[in-house]
Prior knowledge:
By secondary structure, the protein is α+β, with helices and mostly antiparallel strands. The protein is 30% helix and 26% strand.
Amino acid sequence: MKQPKTDKKIEYSTGIDAMRFIMPKATFLKFIKKIELSSKLRAVSRNKKVKGYISDKFKNYKPLIMPKGCEYKVRYMSFKRGVDSLTNTMLVVENSNELNDLCRKRKKPFGHFVKVEFVGLYQPSREVYKKTYEILAKFLKRFKCDSFDLATDIDSDRQSGAKNKEWFSRLLRPFGGDVRSYSTSLYLNKCRKERFYNLSKVCFYDKFKKMSVYHRQKIDSKYQKWHRIELTFKLKAKFRKAWEHEGINEYIQIMDEISNRLSDGMYPFGVDLKILKIKWLFLKIIGARYLLQNPLKG
């Protein structure tokens, strides 16, 4: 298979990589009809690449047993031609473990809620299209954000696999426990949310291997130390309110501390925020004014 070529210079910085929303299915269907997207929703079985990504990325979402008619399902909507990654794609999940637990808690029938996910939003080697930002802005304006991922890229001599599990656990002990390893990734799953602004998960993985081997992108070998740190924060609130009055600084402080620990003290003054401040400024004003004044490519 011919590999896509990536000639562009990759600049490490910090950005929001994923945003998630949970809502009643009926509300979701009514909303996408209003914004004229109903016809674009597709089953993942219609695209081998998307199906492969979902099988790996969402492997813990699927329940072991479900009643007939309430099967686990993931659908997608692409905002560009030729899907080669989850960037520029909206995912819609039904009857997952998380959603089923929520239905039990709220005393609703299975399938009452759906989860909408925008992933791959911060990718130095890929372009996020204007359409993706526009649709995301509509969801941010209408719905509460359930959670989001804040990501930063660093160079690391440490391999993010099982052999460095103890090192990872020792450095991040103040943030919580339950460290797991999977392939070239390390996870901290049980974080002390009450102390760290609802931090729910830390992921540290080999970004170079993921992009060059798994996604088959041609990445220059000078980036072979490229690793990514992803922090997942539970929000359950309107995103704009969470970021008002410099609220973003609370999340950045956690990222600064964890990045400095995992990079052996390479970031004593904090991570680079130029992408976060420039590209994501529009999120503070829900997109419309920023997109009018600063049209994005796509």
